[in-house]
Amino acid sequence: MTGIVDYNAGNIRSVERALEYIKVPYILSKRPQDLKECDRLIFPGVGDCAYAMQQLAATGFDIFLKDWYASGKPLIGICLGSQIVLEDSEEGNVKCLGLLKGHVRHLANAWKELGINKDNSLKIPHMGFNNLNYLNGSSKLLENVPEDSNFYFVHSYFLEPEDKSTVKATASYGFPVPVVLEKDNLTVFQFHPEKSGPAGLQILKNFVKEDL
């Protein structure tokens, strides 16, 4: 059974629709205790990082997610859910879950450091479809997903993990932006698989394959 974390900051309905489309059962809940017996967990999210962390603390999902990761059971993060697993974010200078060492940074700060986008041709947020470049052996959840597949992005901040070997795919947006991280039982996607057509659905199928 697949669980979906509902902490008042998630792109919940689109994830539900995608799972319904591929015909797999799931549990959606605002209560950690309802999800503890699930086999795998989806941690979605949109919006502001500070607000999301407040909601996680208020619902107890902050501790639940840390314990879940430590248990070794499969966990994926989507969009804001991919960022919150790192240690902290420049969005509100807030501390995050710290499942992976690293930081969430604003795209404009990276561009400034790299001396790029001086003509402002690149816009924030990075919005729309972009293709991936695989590296470090890619991810097991990208199996049967061609490398030139396009995925839907909406984000102003990006993932900067301490361990570069955890980066399994990048997307070019001024520089190679890390968009898939994976370590042990955790895989996170900066893009929205559930809004990315057949390629995105394949990722979800790979994640829930035991229930198909």
Attribute tags:
four-stranded mixed sheet; 212 residues; 7 helices; globular; eight-stranded mixed sheet
Largest sheet: 8 strands, mixed
Number of helices: 7
Shape: globular
Could you tell me how far the N terminus lies from the C terminus, measured between alpha carbons in angstroms? 11 Å
Number of strands: 14
User: Whole-number radius of gyration?
Assistant: 16 Å
Beta content comes to 25-35%
Class from helix and strand fractions: alpha/beta
- Overall pLDDT score: 96
Percent helix among the residues? 25-40%
Task: Name the quaternary structure.
Answer: single chain
Tell me the strand order in the biggest sheet: 2-1-3-4-14-13-12-9
Question: What's the SSE pattern?
Answer: EHEHEHHEHEEEHEEEEEEEH
**Unreliable segments (pLDDT under 50, ≥5 consecutive)?**
none
Structure description:
The protein contains seven helices and 14 strands. With 212 residues, it is of the alpha/beta class. The strands form three sheets. The chain has an eight-stranded mixed β-sheet with strand order 2-1-3-4-14-13-12-9, with helices on both faces. The protein has a four-stranded mixed β-sheet with strand order 6-5-7-11. It has a two-stranded antiparallel ribbon with strand order 8-10. It has helices at residues 12-21, 32-35, 49-59, 61-71, 80-83, 107-114, 197-207, and strands at 2-5, 26-29, 40-43, 75-78, 88-89, 94-95, 102-106, 126-131, 133-134, 150-155, 157-161, 167-172, 176-183, 186-189.
